Amino acid sequence: MSNYKHIKLLIWVLLPLLGACTAPWNNPYLDTERLDNTMYSSFSSRPKHLDPARSYSSNEWTFIQSVYETPLQYHYLKRPYSLIPGVLERMPQVHYYNEKGDEIPASNRQSAASSEYILQIKPEVMYQNHPAFVARNLILSDDELSKINHLSDFSHVATRELVASDFVHQIKRLANPKLHSPIFSLMSEMIVGLEGLNKELKNAKGKLDLTQYQISGVKVLDKYRYSIKVKGVQEQFLYWLAMPFFTAVPPEADQFYAQQGLIDKNIVLDWYPVGTGPFQLTVNNPNKEMILEKNPNFHDEYYPSTGQASDVDNNLLIDQAKKLPFLNKVHFLLEKETAPYWNKFLQGYYDQSGISSDNFDQAIEVKAKGKTILAPRMRDKNIRLLTSDSTSVYYTAFNMLDSTVGGYTERSKLLRQAISIAINEEEYISIFRNGRGTAAHGPIPTGIFGATEDYNPFVYDEINKRKDISQAKSLLAQAGYQDGVDPVTNKPLVLYFDTTSTGADDQPRLDWIRKQFKKIDIQLVIRASSYNRLQDKMSKGQTQLFELGWNADYPDPENFLFLLYGKNSKVETGGENGANYQNARYDALFEKMKNMPNSAERQLIIDKMVAILREDAPWVWGFIPKSYGLYHQWLTNSKPHAMARNTLKYLRINPEMRDKFRTEYNQVVWWPLVILVLMLIGLIYRFRRS
Questions:
Q1: Could you give the CA distance from residue 644 to residue 660 in angstroms, rounded to a whole number?
Q2: Is there a contact between 618 and 578 (Cβ–Cβ < 8 Å)?
Q3: How deeply is 4 buried, as exposed, middle or buried, from its count of CB atoms within 10 A (0-12, 13-18, 19+)?
């Protein structure tokens, strides 16, 4: 064959190869899935529990609250966060009773001995198809069970309607000593009869059949109604009804999964949930992937028609009143490292992403005064940046029992106020959090009822203008520490700061904290402690200053203001008031406020409480973290929500747009290969000529 024919043959071999490469070669998914209505996400560690009585982790709740439905849920768009019916027909009716059991009006509820919640569920809500609803599958022989290796091996599945007794069954499960529910202790102090049921179940022999046990405070009223009686007045109980602990679990599921042949193969409720939610878990392989698929039996639920004013401008109401969910599938892949996830996000193979500290500079530009915008590379891809304040607060606490920084004299207040001015939270956020946070002016984070936009007048001159350091020094002098000198020892004032953050990576931050105190001539000694050691020192009142954080259990101001309630003193009661702060006026207002519904009256009381705290300064009001999320243009209806974990049903994907941009983002650069091939042809030609 001539050289020309060799070259011609090589070109004819390469041309089809080049032409066949319209789809990206680096696609980690099947090519047949390119246009599927599937959202792609990830998880970094395997869920430990998927049983709603046992799970208390946000990464697990993403799956649980997509499969199960709770009586109440959070409105997706409204802020502050507000509760609406989930699988309930309407919000619960609440009745109040005195010690004699007589009903009293709601206006006198503060004196109630008990409160009863009447809950009515929606009719015609069906469970996902599941083998537990086939009676024959509940009594399988050992031989039949030996042939089952996966839930999908069952050829017969069925469904049934959700009924009120399923919710009562789940509440009984909270008392099951074998399940070790993380909220049993708390709920036993709240729900009438729960502790008694727990004691009864502890004495039970053999397999437990919860349908044979009763709980005095929880009753089935009819097919669609049930009641829960709690001790006293528990206004925050409604928030618990939006958590998975109070979802419905059908008794058939417990009976089905109690078969030893299934338990031996880890086919259990803690691994294979069964619910009425918008999705069902069809693949649970946490060493590789987890897949949620649309539940074909899901009842009618619709995208919200109302929200905030900004939601219209942000195109968050385009799908109003449309049937949920919009996605057919959500595919989660295991990604233990941030770098691979980040690269796949940039390539379009993940639809959304957080921003790690390693990737922050690639994603974000920080402008004057700490303003953040997307980096050009992100803007070129039409990626959207969404930020939101979390329902968390980080702070530095003073031990109010300490003889130097504690106490309620004018002198001690001035010392704490001076330190509060000196610790520049805005600078901290800029240096150590890439600007991801806002300085706190009190204990209640933004987005929680009770939070206001005013500023702390003891630390700031204006909302964003911290008092000058000279004012901090002046306060220190008024406190008797002129130029930072302790009048008792006639030496520089030395304070002690306990922290569990003592690794090499923490040293720059700890050095920065020392410098903040040095600005007002106070020497700070940092004492390293393990977490357990710090807790022990706090319980004994052996600290001066220490740093802590708190994340909301539920979006109510009570869940933050109780951190400074006198009866929750760490030293006296072992409570969460690590500062051991006690103020009779504050405590009286707290007791009045804690069980009030959100109202103008409640806001007025909260304002008075916060004013007391700002003056007493038991904390250095630290910062409220801000979450940053990146979203590709083909993912719509995205709005960060700090409380809800059932938000997948609101999201929408445009698969055609995604496929187009994936191809654009992942073009194979062929010219180096072409040059290499041409060089190779030339070498072959020269070699053959020689």
A1: 32
A2: no
A3: exposed
- pLDDT 10s digits, 508-520: 999 999 999 999 9
CA distance 440 to 681: 69
Residues 471, 476, 479: CA angle, nearest 5 degrees: 130
pLDDT at 351 over 80: yes
Q: Is 649 left (phi over 0), alpha (psi -120 to 50) or beta?
A: alpha
At 521, which amino acid appears?
D
Q: In whole numbers, what is the pLDDT of the chain averaged over residues? A: 93
Bigger pLDDT: 672 vs 574:
574
Residues 460/467, Cβ–Cβ less than 8 Å: yes
User: What would the pLDDT profile of 17-45 be if each residue is shown by its tens digit?
Assistant: 554 455 678 899 999 999 999 999 999 88
Domain residue spans of the chain? 50-259, 392-627
CB contact set of 528 (below 8 Å; sequence gap of 6+): 499, 500, 502
Pairing mode, strands 485-486 and 491-492: antiparallel
Mean pLDDT of 80-101: 96
Per the CB < 8 A criterion, the answer to whether 171 and 240 are in contact is: no
Phi-psi sector, 369: left (phi>0), alpha (psi -120 to 50), beta:
left
- Residue for token digits 């001076």? 418
> Which alpha helices (DSSP H) does 354-402 contain, by range?
360-363, 376-380
Dihedral angle, C-alpha 686, 688, 689, 690, nearest 10 °? 90
Tokens matching residue 603: 């806001």
Q: Which amino acid is at 610?
A: V
pLDDT of residue 685 exceeding 70:
no
Q: How far apart are CA 417 and CA 460, in angstroms?
A: 11
Percent of the chain with pLDDT over 90: 80
Cα distance between residue 505 and residue 382, in whole Å:
35
The alpha carbon dihedral of 595, 601, 602, 605 has a sign of negative
For the stretch 360-363, contacts whose Cβ atoms lie closer than 8 Å and that sit 24 or more positions apart, written own/partner, are 360/434, 363/628, 363/630
Phi, psi of 252 (to 5 degrees): -60, -35
Give pairs for 293-298: CB < 8 Å, separation 24+.
293/328, 293/329, 294/325, 294/327, 294/328, 294/329, 295/128, 296/129, 297/126, 297/127, 297/128, 297/129, 297/159, 298/324, 298/325
Cβ(244)–Cβ(277) below 8 Å: no
Q: Are 166 and 133 in contact (CB under 8 A)?
A: no
Where residue 77 falls (left for φ over 0; alpha for ψ -120 to 50; beta otherwise) is: alpha
Q: Which residue has the tokens 């900004």?
A: 310
User: Does 392-627 match 50-259 at the fold level?
Assistant: no
Q: What is the pLDDT of residue 20?
A: 47
Tell me the residue length of the chain: 690
Coil, strand, or helix at residue 635? Answer: strand
CA gap 524, 10 in Å, rounded: 75
- List 619's β-bridge partners, or say none: 397
The per-residue DSSP string of 506-574 comes to: GHHHHHHHHHHHHTTT-EEEEEE--HHHHHHHHHTT--SEEEEEEE-SSS-THHHHGGG-GGGBHHHH-
Q: Which residues are CB-neighbours of 396 under 8 A, at least 6 positions away?
A: 423, 497, 545, 546, 547, 619, 620, 622
Class of domain 392-627: alpha beta
From the centroid of its chain, how far is CA 566?
Answer: 28
Contact 241, 92 (CB under 8 A): yes
| pLDDT over threshold 80, residue 136 | yes
Q: Say whether domain 50-259 belongs to CATH 3.90.76.10.
A: yes
> What CA–CA distance (Å, rounded) separates 452 from 430?
23
Instruction: Report the pLDDT value the prediction gives residue 474, as an integer from 0 to 100.
Output: 97
Does pLDDT of 8 surpass 60?
A: no
Decide: 395 and 622 in contact? Cβ < 8 Å. Answer: yes
Cα–Cα distance measured from residue 125 to residue 127, given in angstroms and rounded to the nearest whole number: 7
Q: How far apart are CA 467 and CA 204, in angstroms?
A: 65
